[in-house]
Amino acid sequence: PIYLDHLASTPLDPAVLDAMLPWLSAATAGNPHAAHRAGWRAAEAIEGARAEVAALIGARPGEIVFTSGATEANNLALLGATPGGWPVAVSAVEHRSVLACLPELRRRGHDTALLPVDRRGIVDADRLAHVLAAGPALVSVMAANNEVGSVQPLGDIAALCQRNGALLHVDAVQYLATAVLDVRVLDIALLSLSGHKLYGPPGIGALFLREGLPLTPLLHGGGQQHGRRPGTLPTALCVGLGAACRTARERRAADAARVAALRDRLFHLLAGAIDGLRRNDPGKDALPGCLHVSLPGLDAADLVLGLPDLAISTGAACWEGRGGPSHVLAAMGLAPEEAHGSLRIGLGRFTTEREVERAATLLVRAIRARPAR
Ligand code: PMP
């Protein structure tokens, strides 16, 4: 099998697994919140991991709240940190875990606005300026999109937010494995990240919450993490996320260059063999590992199903099988017919040149062999 679905989930890095394994053994059993040596050891490991997560984004350890993943982190940010009565503005291409908070925010009396994007999936900064002219708001814009890989002009967006007293939340899930982001430089108030997009384990993520920002927790329980997110912390998962963040810091620059070269090679191989292939990701301005293409008349879902040993997708995994066209492609102005013929290919840290060549061969063969419509 060839795994080219890194935007859906990244494989666990062996170095991360090594860091986690000791914490999965009976010898290290112990509730990290308990008052005995076993508990203290686990707590110490968790605090080390929290510091690694903080270091990846230029935060302080006390500003990191572990969550079950980025879905929870996004929910916690929007539903827990939006000041009472403030409007909320989010880009039209956000992940469902952001967009799905909007009805609940409206129910609570907040105005909500969807910021349109251009053909490349980039947020319209003028529209954001217009929204912010009316007064402060919570703004949620992703660093990079999980379907087409568009990277947002976060510097401009952050500056706009700062000038207008707005709070900026950034879903940085897709961005951190290959790029540098510093919450202090950009004056970001809230940021979400996820283990399984950083070659760490699934089931763990984190919310960065700028020191001093009030937060209403989503969960109520035993007061862990200063009550901001109660629940016994999973030591192995926290350690895994910490190791993944440390590895990302060490590898992101080299990974980005290598993966971008492989991505361009794959596009070159496909475009050279398939007439009419269109590229929807913004190329060099996109996430280095993301290749998003469409072919008029292609039944992409059928193609993907016909190549079960090639892990690629037609769109966001969490939305697959739900029928409707992708809200991201629709917001970018792609016709439903174009969206129908779209493939999302995600290359990553362990992708090899041979895999890229083999994938191109399989795809070209399958596309040429498909029945005429
Ligand atoms: N935001 C983005 C941009 C994502 O790609 C994902 C994962 N598909 C999420 C949020 C949700 O993350 P998790 O799977 O950790 O809940």
UniProtKB/TrEMBL annotation:
<dbReference type="Pfam" id="PF00266">
    <property type="entry name" value="Aminotran_5"/>
</dbReference>
<dbReference type="InterPro" id="IPR015422">
    <property type="entry name" value="PyrdxlP-dep_Trfase_small"/>
</dbReference>
<protein>
    <recommendedName>
        <fullName>Cysteine desulfurase</fullName>
    </recommendedName>
</protein>
<feature type="domain" description="Aminotransferase class V">
    <location>
        <begin position="2"/>
        <end position="358"/>
    </location>
</feature>
<dbReference type="InterPro" id="IPR000192">
    <property type="entry name" value="Aminotrans_V_dom"/>
</dbReference>
<keyword id="KW-0663">Pyridoxal phosphate</keyword>
<dbReference type="InterPro" id="IPR015421">
    <property type="entry name" value="PyrdxlP-dep_Trfase_major"/>
</dbReference>
<dbReference type="InterPro" id="IPR015424">
    <property type="entry name" value="PyrdxlP-dep_Trfase"/>
</dbReference>
<comment type="similarity">
    <text>Belongs to the class-V pyridoxal-phosphate-dependent aminotransferase family. NifS/IscS subfamily.</text>
</comment>
<dbReference type="InterPro" id="IPR016454">
    <property type="entry name" value="Cysteine_dSase"/>
</dbReference>
<keyword id="KW-0408">Iron</keyword>
<keyword id="KW-0411">Iron-sulfur</keyword>
<keyword id="KW-0808">Transferase</keyword>
<comment type="function">
    <text>Catalyzes the removal of elemental sulfur atoms from cysteine to produce alanine. Seems to participate in the biosynthesis of the nitrogenase metalloclusters by providing the inorganic sulfur required for the Fe-S core formation.</text>
</comment>
<keyword id="KW-0479">Metal-binding</keyword>
